[in-house]
Design brief:
Number of strands: 24
Radius of gyration: 33 Å
Shape: globular
CATH topology of the largest domain: D-amino Acid Aminotransferase, Chain A, domain 1
Number of domains: 6
CATH superfamily of the largest domain: DNA ligase/mRNA capping enzyme
Bound molecules: 2-(butylsulfanyl)adenosine
Strand content: 15-25%
Distance between the termini: 65 Å
Largest sheet: 7 strands, antiparallel
Structural class: alpha+beta
CATH class of the largest domain: Alpha Beta
CATH architecture of the largest domain: 2-Layer Sandwich
Length: 697
């Protein structure tokens, strides 16, 4: 059906307006819509855009202008019409043509095996049954009704027989086609699926809401449900919703294929989004293998799933199996262990980290979450504690996802004991008693005790011996605690003065373990400058920065001697990190730790080099340092850097008095101002290209 026919039935003045619309305009509108639909599909369904966003915006704008010029061209399926008016009478009830049933649950492997056995027995089949295995998306079940390929209604599940009309909101979801693609769809087709919010979108949305002081959602499922319950579709349109479809039904069953997996394929051809992880598996063994596979990648999926759904793939077998009360006999949801549980907060304590960060931790009534007993949950920082207002005695929801530290999702305020008090930030370090300060504008409060604080000392030592630092195998967390508590080790240098006899004295330490530790200590003496720098635990100096520093200077003494300004010449070192490095080496107690490590027969050594800073490269740009800012048209940053280095020049991250040239593209940042202040020569892109070509020849 073309667009003008659709209009004719709904407007009496159409004959006149139709005549006013020239054929080329109608053709152009049809072409633009087809083009835009194709790109919507590429972008929102396939996640594989083929044109830049700006080009897409241009097409949409062109269509909007055309529709403004000829309002009679507008049809409800036009991509310009996703966001319409709010329904006048709220959410109207919708009676489902076929009930939206629910799923039986299986909570372990035995229940899945029993499900498969029941099916084989009922069907009297010897061969294994084929199942469609699909992630069970954690969102909101939605039914879409297409007539003549056009989306005419979207409804929630409700009680299974009557749901709510949410068409105005579902239309705003870009992966839901307003008009089906291709051909061959049944005249009236009901498609079912799950509207969900991808995790990344959920987190970004919550962050924005928190920053604006607005209400945040506890999880992506609540966010999806809340977004669909908006009266104003404009609000829903700004929520990052998406939809996967997982089934279809029509009165003309012969118009759909005979296997569920083929129906999914067909839906996908019609432009609907089908979960790419869906797969056909054989028998209970196939189901369980799929379940295990998905359990492993579950946390990497961009959306939340709470289990796997297995469906008998053959529709004629589904028919034979039928249903019991509210659920079919041919499908089942194999649930992952719940990741959220209720428990009670016994205490809120403050832990002190390596850099002195004072972090609130909730001690919980132990509870099993997703197969692991949880008795602690991080509260990240004091602001977070205040925002969630977690108090001793509170009943809370704890969540554990993958390997991350369990966290408190929210407090059940109506179960709060009447006499509870908000938790205060301690003024003094709970470990060493030094002042705790919280710099203006920072979320993190810190103990000022430095290495006087045994908590910071322990954490620093644990970092020092860790695998990517000096890699002293066998010196675990408990052992370090003991070494510090017994006073055997105060600073890293002490580690290298430990004797086997010292170690043997410790709890639970055998001859063999002591020998192993001595050997590991010995091995760690031969190290690299990079590892040593990282091991020092300078704030904001991770492995990558340690590597850059080592490469650039080649020697520890040169790094110690470098000024803040010098340090900014090192690739990727900006003013803040430079200040941290400089401050670290200026502190007397750090100087004595270093002196101790280097002087007193610890035996630690590493090869030193001249460093890139001192090896003038060869080529016409040798000895010249360039800084890049803004966007260049002809090259990416990396390409520009490669070109400079190929001619012997160096590229630094920040401008200093030693910078030879600042290469400035569009939208330059603060570096341009700094260059002006330091009177550094500035090259625009043309000048830069000229320099490269003249120096090259
Ligand atoms: S098929 C309405 N397949 O799980 C029954 N359901 O209790 C549809 N769900 O909220 C059963 N992913 O929306 C099916 N791949 C999938 C699913 C799925 C999520 C939801 C469904 C409903 C719940 C079933």
């Amino acid at each position: 059906m073309n667009d003008s026919c659709a209009r004719r039935s709904s407007s009496s003045s159409i004959t006149i307006s139709l005549m006013e619309i020239p054929q080329p305009a109608r053709q152009l509108a049809a072409d633009l819509r087809a083009e835009i639909r194709k790109h919507d599909y590429q972008y929102h369904v396939l996640d594989a855009p083929v044109i830049p966003d700006a080009e897409y915006d241009r097409l949409l704008l062109q269509l909007k202008e055309l529709e403004k010029q000829y309002p009679d061209l507008v049809t409800p399926e036009s991509p310009t019409q996703r966001v319409g008016a709010a329904p006048e009478s709220g959410f109207k009830p919708v009676r489902h043509e076929r009930p939206m049933l629910s799923l039986e649950n299986a909570f372990d492997e035995d229940e899945v095996i029993a499900f498969d056995r029941r099916i084989s027995e009922r069907l009297g089949l010897e061969d294994s049954i084929s199942y469609s295995a699909e992630p069970k998306l954690d969102g909101v079940a939605i039914s879409l009704l297409y007539e003549g390929g056009r989306l005419i209604r979207a409804a929630t599940r409700g009680d299974g027989s009557t749901g709510e009309d949410v068409t105005h909101n579902v239309r705003t979801i870009k992966s839901v086609p307003l008009q089906l693609a291709g051909s061959g769809w049944p005249e009236r087709l009901e498609v079912r699926g799950e509207v969900y919010m991808p995790r990344a979108g959920f987190e970004a949305m919550n962050k924005r809401a928190a920053a604006a002081g607005e209400k945040t959602f506890a999880n992506p499922r609540n966010a999806a449900a809340g977004s669909l319950r908006q009266l104003d579709p404009q609000v829903t349109a700004n929520r990052p919703l998406d939809m996967f479809v997982y089934g279809a039904a029509t009165a003309m069953a012969e118009q759909l294929p005979g296997l569920h997996s083929e129906i999914l394929e067909r839906l996908s051809q019609w432009g609907l989004k089908v979960c790419p992880q869906s797969s056909v598996v054989e028998g209970a063994a196939g189901c369980l293998a799929y379940f295990r596979e998905l359990s492993v990648i579950r946390d990497e999926l961009p959306y939340d799933i709470d289990g796997i759904v297995y469906k008998v793939n053959d529709l004629s077998l589904q028919e034979r199996l039928g249903r019991v009360a509210r659920a079919p006999r041919w499908d089942i949801a194999h649930k992952f262990p719940a990741q959220e549980q209720l428990t009670v907060v016994r205490a809120v304590e403050f832990q002190v980290g390596r850099t002195g960060a004072v972090t609130p931790v909730a001690r919980l009534e132990p509870v099993e979450v997703g197969g692991v007993t949880v008795s602690n949950a991080t509260l990240h920082n004091f602001d977070e504690l205040r925002r969630k207002d977690v108090r001793v005695g509170d009943t809370v929801i704890v969540r554990r996802a993958g390997d991350v530290i369990p966290e408190i999702v929210s407090v059940l305020k109506d179960r709060r004991p009447a006499d509870s008090q908000p938790v205060e930030l301690p003024g003094h370090c709970p470990v060493c008693g030094s002042d705790v300060i919280r710099p203006e504008g920072e979320a993190v409060a810190r103990c000022t005790g430095g290495l006087y604080c045994s908590a910071q000392r322990k954490e620093s030592l644990k970092h020092f011996v860790s695998r990517r630092a000096l890699d002293i195998a066998g010196l675990g967390s408990k052992l370090i605690d003991q070494l510090v508590d017994t006073g055997l080790v105060k600073s890293p240098g002490d580690l290298y003065r430990l004797t086997k006899e010292d170690l043997i004295e410790l709890e639970r330490m055998g001859q063999k373990s002591a020998d192993n530790i001595m050997a590991a200590l010995d091995k760690s003496r031969e190290t690299t400058l990079e590892r040593f720098l990282y091991a020092l635990g300078i704030r904001d100096v991770g492995e990558a920065t340690a590597k850059s520093l080592a490469r650039y200077y080649g020697s520890l003494d040169r790094i110690i001697a470098a000024s803040e300004e010098d340090l900014q010449e090192v690739p990727d070192v900006g003013p803040i990190v430079a200040a941290r490095i400089h401050a670290f080496f200026s502190q007397p107690h750090n100087q004595s730790v270093l002196k101790d490590l280097r002087d007193s027969n610890t035996g630690i050594q590493w090869p030193e080099t001249a460093g890139e800073a001192n090896t003038s490269g060869e080529g016409p740009l040798a000895g010249m340092t360039f800084v890049l800012t803004g966007k260049l048209d002809a090259f990416s940053r990396t390409e520009a850097k490669d070109k400079i280095e190929a001619l012997g020049g160096r590229v630094s991250g920040s401008v200093s008095s030693r910078t030879a040239f600042l290469v400035q593209g569009h939208d330059p940042g603060s570096k341009a101002k700094k260059a002006q202040k330091l009177k550094v020569d500035v090259l625009d892109e043309a000048g830069f290209i000229r320099l490269l070509t003249t120096k090259h020849s």
